[in-house]
Amino acid sequence: MKVLFVSSGNSSSGISPIVKAQGDSLVSLGLNVSYFAVTGKGVWGYLKNIGSLRKTMVEENYDIVHAHFSLSGFVASLAGASPLIVSLMGWNVQKPLLRFFIRVFNKLTWDACIVKSNKMRDSLGIKKVSVIPNGVDQNRFYVMEKNVAQKYLGWDPMKTHLLCAADPKRPIKNVGLAREAYELIKTDSTELHFLGDIAFEEVVYHYNASDVVFLTSKAEGS
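Now predict its structure.
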């Protein structure tokens, strides 16, 4: 089976590591997975990809198109993707205007819609959705000795390390709250870290090396 993943390609790594991990899991099951990276910022930036996506689908004749995030779902719909599955990942169901268009596209062109939690399903108000949280690849994320992880990252083992599990560049992650909390306990023996521009393979080291993890997001899918 040939599957095409449609997702934003605007991050420093191109396709999101979270989306790529899902694709890898399908490949391990024997499926053929390809990726179409939607490039460009905002609605108009996304819409400019419709023509090239349509051309890609005609040339390759995929069995299923799976779009990740609402804007990618809209682009895939307008490009004529069929059958089309759309995964909504979190914050995109919180915006009233986006929620309206999600309902319209879901009713008219989406063959299946996936959300990550019951809260997302209830917020959307759409009965025909599937709640499928993202899985955890335990070959990538596993427990290791803290001193091993700290040595790998070059963190001072004599300090208490706090990790804000988010990229400071993303406002929805509400990193300012983590900074404010840290200021209340900050000493010479504490250090605050962020999951910014790091390799996906290094995330597991950051989690294991930390004494405390902050999750301060205004919205999360899972």
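The two ends are 28 Å apart (CA to CA).
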